Amino acid sequence: MNAPTRDLGTVTAAAIAAYRSGDTSLMAEMVERVSPLLWRVARAQGLSTASAEDVVQTSWLRLLQHIDRIDEDRAVLKWLVTTVRREAWSVGRKSTKDIVSDPVAMPEMPTVDPTVQLVEQLGVSDVLWTHVRDLSERCRRLLAVIAFADRPDYAAIAEALGMPVGSIGPTRGRCLAKLRAALEADPTWVTS
User: Fold this and answer.
1) What is the rounded CA–CA span in Å between residue 60 and residue 31?
2) Rounded distance, CA 106 to CA 60, Å?
3) Max mean pLDDT range (15-19, 114-118, 123-127, 129-133)
4) Number of domains observed in the structure of the chain
5) Same domain for 118 and 165?
6) Within 10 A of 21 (CB to CB), how many other CB atoms are there?
7) Are residues 138 and 85 in the same domain?
8) How high does pLDDT run on average in the chain?
9) Could you list the residue range(s) of the whole structural domain that residue 125 is in?
10) How far apart are CA 44 and CA 56, in angstroms?
11) In a 3-state reduction of DSSP, which class is residue 181?
12) Is residue 154 one of the residues assigned to a domain?
């Protein structure tokens, strides 16, 4: 069965089973396929882009920290979704304490139609992910794990991907340079 036809539960269960037996090769596919779902769950809780990034990254790291406590491989996807939701609630509660109550101090909201904005974002996202899929497996695996991290935990990433800690930064730089070059050469890649 090829990857596009496998459901997320199957992809996750297979990756976790392989990971538990010492094979990390399926983890990148799992992260790549499951991260959009986790991202949507975090954003659905009303988080900003930055907060959602933090929540998704934290949830992946929590999985690595607590994977031995999850008995059933097929339960990992539900565990991740639940973890993202709880982290998002926690972050959301903390951020509501910082809301500005003075309407004069609040910035004006843009008058852009959210539907048009969403369609434009999806088009950009499709072009981006097309080029990400064209990268080498090593680059895809690494970028999938660190995509949402401001300050990635290199030790955890090194362990998860079976890479030396010292090669993560340089490899990340080379992978991002390849991606940037591919995007700049693509006439359909437009950023505002």
Assistant:
1) 8
2) 34
3) 15-19
4) 2
5) yes
6) 7
7) no
8) 78
9) 111-192
10) 13
11) helix
12) yes
**115: pLDDT strictly greater than 50:** no
CA distances from 110 to 52, 73, 127 (A): 21, 44, 25
Amino acid at 152: P
- Which helix (H) or strand (E) segment is 111 a member of? none
CA dist 187 and 107 (Å) reads: 34
Q: Which of 20-29, 75-84, 146-155, 165-174 has the lowest mean pLDDT?
A: 146-155
pTM across the whole model: 0.49
Nearest residue to 144 via CA among 183, 171, 117: 171
Q: In this structure, are residues 80 and 63 in contact, taking their beta carbons and an 8 Å threshold?
A: yes
Q: Looking up tokens 């993560």, which residue turns up?
A: 168
Q: What is the DSSP letter of 46?
A: T
- Cα distances (angstroms) measured from residue 156 to each of 6, 18, 64, 78, 149: 27, 17, 8, 22, 12
- Contact between 19 and 27 (Cβ < 8 Å): yes
